[in-house]
Write a structure and sequence with these properties.
The complex is a heterodimer of chains A (105) and B (119). By secondary structure, chain A is mostly beta strands. In chain A, 0% of the residues lie in helices and 50% in strands. Chain B is mainly β and 119 residues long. In chain B, strand 4 and strand 5 form a beta hairpin. The radius of gyration of chain B is 13 Å and the shape is globular. The chains are: A mainly beta (105), B mainly beta (119).
Chain lengths: 105, 119
């Protein structure tokens, strides 16, 4: 399995820029995708194939990376962005990161 | 708009089978795309379980291959998950989701159904 490693938690203030990282145990080309999950809700697709913004997602969200290192950036952060953010690769059988819980101070 | 909705028992006894239904509206599952099951364990770990394609072929996570079956009822626009010989480690929230086939990301998700395995 391709293991995806994420930092467990981050805390930022509204208006700041935050970068959430995801490292793959092997190269996944650009087949990395990002989801936002709020408590009690289903995951929502934010970014597909490393850097493509999903339909309806605000331009404050962006993605970058290739190979093994990927980043989801939110700039500027808003209070409503409180959520857990997951990465998922699809170069091999799909696997997910353990999620980064984002707290807005 | 495409919508997916999971349904099924919230409590299953150990060694029994877990059976869930995903009802799809807004798109016919035989028209295209793949249709998947994903679960999220307590503590946030998420696991892709498998999918059924628009043509009816299936692909399963190798870690579950001996216990899982995904089938469909095209007349009802539904697909199903059966997981056999469950243990307490199968306690999770189960989601169905639509896959973009060329790139294998999940663009539409159901709300999820929590299933507890307990005697």
């Amino acid at each position: 399995d391709t293991v995806l490693t994420q930092s467990p938690a981050l805390a930022v203030s509204p208006g700041e820029r935050v970068s959430i990282s995801c490292r793959a145990s092997e190269g996944v080309n650009s087949y990395m995708h990002w989801y936002q999950q709020k408590p009690g809700q289903q995951p929502k697709l934010l970014i597909y194939k490393a850097s493509n913004l999903a339909s309806g997602v605000p331009a404050r969200f962006s993605g970058s990376g290739s190979g093994t290192d990927f980043t989801l950036t939110i700039d500027p952060v808003e209070a409503d962005d409180t959520a857990t953010y997951f990465c998922q690769q699809s170069w091999n059988d799909p696997t997910f990161g353990s999620g980064t819980k984002l707290e807005i101070k | 708009e495409i919508q997916l909705q999971e349904s099924g028992p919230g409590l299953v006894k150990p060694s029994q089978s877990l059976s869930l239904t995903c009802s799809v509206t807004g798109y016919t599952i035989t028209s295209g795309y793949d249709w998947s099951w994903i679960r999220k364990f307590p503590g946030n770990k998420m696991e892709w379980m498998g999918y059924i394609s628009y043509s009816g072929s299936t692909n399963y996570n190798p870690s579950l291959k001996s216990r899982i079956s995904i089938t469909r009822d095209t007349s009802k626009n539904q697909f199903f998950l059966q997981l056999n010989s469950v243990t307490t480690e199968d306690t999770a929230t189960y989601y169905c989701a639509k896959i973009i086939t060329t790139t294998y990301y999940f663009d539409y998700w159901g709300q999820g159904v929590m299933v507890t395995v307990s005697s």
